[in-house]
Design brief:
This protein is mostly helical. The protein has helices at 10-36, 45-75, 80-101. It has three helices and no strands. Helix 2 packs antiparallel against helix 3 (80-101).
C-alpha cells in the first residue's frame, strides 16, 4: 500500500520511515568512525577495576570520617570517635580493595 491509501495509518508509515532513516544514519556514522579511526572502544576491565578501587578508598575515608564526626557531635566525645571511625573506614576500604584486587580482570 502507498502512504496515501485509506486503509493504512499515516503514523505507522512515518514511524517506519524514521526507523529506516535512523538505521541508515547509525550505519553511516559507524562507517565514518571506522574510517577515521575514532571508533569508541570499550574501556578495559583493568581500567574499571581501578575506578572501583579509587571509589572504595574515597568512600571508606569519607564515610568513616563523616560517621565519626556525627557520633562525636552527638555524644560529645570529640575527637576520639572521629579518629576511631576514620581508621575503621580505612580498614574496611583496604579489605574491599584486597577483594577487588583478587578478582581476575578479563
Amino acid at each position: 500500500m502507498a502512504a496515501n491509501d485509506p486503509g493504512q495509518d499515516p503514523e505507522s508509515v512515518g514511524d517506519q520511515r524514521l526507523s529506516s532513516l535512523d538505521e541508515r544514519l547509525k550505519a553511516i556514522q559507524q562507517a565514518e568512525q571506522v574510517r577515521t579511526g575514532t571508533a569508541q572502544k570499550k574501556p578495559e576491565r583493568g581500567y574499571s577495576q581501578g575506578n572501583r578501587v579509587l571509589s572504595t578508598l574515597i568512600a571508606g575515608l569519607v564515610g568513616g570520617g563523616l560517621m565519626g564526626w556525627c557520633f562525636d557531635t552527638w555524644l560529645g566525645t570529640t575527637p576520639w570517635l572521629l579518629l576511631v571511625m576514620l581508621f575503621l573506614g580505612i580498614g574496611v576500604a583496604f579489605r574491599n580493595i584486597i577483594r577487588i584486587s583478587q578478582e581476575r580482570p578479563e
